[in-house]
Design brief:
Elements (H helix, E strand, L loop, with lengths): L2 H12 L49 H10 L8 H5 L10 H10 L3 H15 L3 H4 L4 H11 L7 H12 L4 H5 L10 E3 L23 E2 L3 E3 L11 E7 L2 E6 H7 L1 E6 L2 E8 L4 E2 L1 E3 L12 E8 L2 E6 L4 E4 L4 E2 L2 H5 L6 E2 L2 E4 H7 L4 E3 L38 E6 L5 E5 H9 L5 E2 L2 E3 L8 E3 L2 E3 L2 E4 H7 L4 E2 L3
Parallel strand pairs: 2-6, 5-16, 18-24
Antiparallel strand pairs: 1-10, 3-16, 4-5, 4-15, 6-7, 7-8, 7-9, 9-14, 10-11, 11-12, 12-13, 17-18, 17-23, 19-20, 20-21, 21-22
Helix pairs in contact: 4-5, 4-7, 4-8
């Protein structure tokens, strides 16, 4: 980018709030809203329709002239030429739209943004500016919904663009055997957390800093946290721990030992999902895993990676998708996470501990760090969605031994249990506990967690859904 644009980019990175992945920022500093909802629509409930995909999508390698145009557009990613990016719209190959989506995501220079938007309009047949002030959102939503194929070599093209933003992502792109659909990966607005294990300070360039081995205090010392505030309750063996949501919203990742087991606990604020994965050898890991937030998103779900091996994990499933742990076939087992209030968890588990008010690192935490950021629907592209529920409706999800996913709308399930009704599907039974929804199968506990419906359904599109 030209010097002025580079200064703008660095300034924006410097002010990123490390508490969360921020809303995308357009050249006019307008946050992206749901790309397809009208101004009077509720994006969490509105029916979503997409324009039809372009006709005559080629297959096979790019034509020579198209490949040359792509190469010219990224020839000097640090000082891009608007004309070279605009020329992508003249290629006639809609697969190039993935490159334009990547340019739009990092285009803090207005000329580059306009060039990429014009080119994307030409190739897609869309009027992106009429859909949203930040055209990256509606474009990428459409590309995902269309399942538009990428061209051979797209990963290398994307790597050239993304490594300019964060050189620390280079190992993720270099694994030719990685099981990552790079079309669905985008920048979350923050840099990689590559601080060493046990680090307590912030990232110099702005990241979401993991919390390693947080200090825990007895419940009696947890009166700083409001009774009606949300905690994520975890019980492993005889140890019970409450993780306040406000602290998890800041760190989004905890590495800890609970009940003698080593675990990693990612919290995807964008999809409302707190999970616990065993990282010791008994849980499918190595005992040396230190999970970190990459700063990348996969269809609006955080992308986590192991600092020790640089292996990327699917945050929703716990499966390694790149690096040495992917080669080893690593699949981490999950523990149950109960989403409830602090008062209900404390009353049901008086022996619980809670993460210390300062996290054990001398930090202060707002009670509402996100300030309603996600109230109007997903702020990053998610593409097509399952309209059986609202996108942000919370569901309790489990995966059966045969791989069958089962989901229960959380509010409806809690109401049914409160009314004395049975809540069960596919042999899975929910039982009320501490205001949350633990799941059992044949009387045995099942690993489970809550998540926003859009996230659960897109990772498990064939999920069975309980209805009251």
């Amino acid at each position: 980018m030209p010097p002025a644009s580079t200064a703008v980019l660095l300034a924006l990175l410097a002010v990123v709030v490390a508490a969360c992945s921020p809303s995308p920022v357009s050249p006019t500093d307008t946050a992206s809203a749901d790309a397809t909802a009208g101004p009077d629509d509720d994006p969490t409930e509105a029916a979503v329709t997409f324009a039809p995909p372009p006709a005559d999508i080629p297959t096979g390698p790019l034509d020579e002239e198209v490949a040359l145009a792509v190469a010219r557009s990224i020839a000097s990613v640090g000082n891009p030429e608007p004309a070279a990016i605009r020329a992508l719209g003249d290629t006639g190959d809609p697969r190039v739209l993935w490159v334009l989506s990547d340019w739009l995501r990092i285009a803090f220079d207005v000329e580059i943004y306009d060039a990429a938007t014009d080119a994307a309009d030409e190739l897609s047949g869309l009027d992106l500016r009429a859909m949203d002030d930040f055209s990256w959102g509606p474009l990428t939503d459409h590309l995902i919904a269309w399942d538009l194929p990428a061209f051979d070599g797209y990963v290398d093209t994307k790597a050239a663009i993304y490594r300019f933003i964060e050189p620390g992502w280079a190992p993720f792109f270099e694994d030719a055997d990685a099981d990552i659909d790079w079309r669905l990966v985008s920048w979350g607005g923050v840099r990689i957390d590559d601080r060493p294990a046990g680090a307590t300070g912030p990232c110099p360039n702005g990241c979401i800093p993991a919390l390693d081995d947080p200090a825990l205090t007895p419940a009696s010392e947890g009166d700083w946290y409001p009774d009606d505030a949300i905690v994520f309750g975890v019980q492993i063996g005889d140890e019970v721990v409450a993780f306040p949501r406000n602290i998890m919203e800041v760190h989004e990742m905890v590495n800890a030992t609970i009940g003698g087991r080593r675990v990693a606990m990612p919290y995807c604020t964008l999809c409302g999902a707190a999970q616990v994965f065993f990282t010791d050898a008994d849980g499918g890991g190595t005992g040396e895993i230190v999970m970190r937030t990459s700063g990348l998103l996969h269809r609006s779900n955080k992308v986590m990676y192991d600092l020790t091996t640089q292996s990327v994990f699917d945050t929703f499933t716990g499966r390694a998708v790149s690096g040495p742990l992917h080669d080893a076939g690593t699949q981490l087992e999950q523990a149950t996470v109960v989403t409830t209030t602090w008062a209900e968890w404390r009353d049901a588990h008086p022996d619980t501990t809670i993460v210390a008010e300062d996290g054990g690192i001398g930090r202060s935490y707002d009670l509402d760090p996100l300030g309603g950021r996600d109230d109007d629907g997903p702020i990053f592209p998610i593409g097509d969605r399952d309209d059986r529920l609202g996108v942000h409706d919370q569901v309790l999800g489990v995966i059966l031994a045969d791989g069958t996913p089962v989901a229960f709308p959380a509010d409806e399930a809690l109401a049914a249990l409160d009314a004395g009704e049975e809540v069960s599907l596919a042999g899975v039974h929910l039982l009320p506990d501490a205001g949350g929804l633990p799941a059992t199968l044949a009387g045995e506990p099942l690993a489970s967690h809550q998540a926003g419906w859009f996230a659960w359904s897109q990772f498990h599109p064939d999920t069975l859904l309980w209805a009251p």
